[in-house]
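Service request form, structural biology core

Requester: graduate student, group of Dr. S.
Request type: structure prediction, single chain
Budget code: on file
Notes: please return the result as structure tokens.

Sequence provided:
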Amino acid sequence: MEVEGKTLKELIQNLLKHLNAQVTCEGNYTLFSTKFEVKGKSMEEILKNFGKKIINYYRKKNAIFEEVKTEIIPAKKWILRCILNGKTFEKLVANFKGIKELKLEEKEEGWKLLFSVE
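Core staff response, request fulfilled:
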């Protein structure tokens, strides 16, 4: 699978949309918002950790996010700060357990993320 974005922030938004498209939601919903940080040695590691965090929200909170605001802080250990808004459902089924392999490529027109889910 792959997602693209002109910026890393747009790429993260597109990754979230792509993961959400593979989730089935049932029942009533309530609005939900949260903040969290993910850290990593590289942007690839951050994106993988971001995917894990989102999948945990699918499983534990039955939450699906529609909007994400991000701040990327490059350093020795990169930090991705996220503010997410979405909905929690009575039942949510994700057809995957996690992100398996991930490769980030920089292109002239932006960024491309290749990944597989397990």
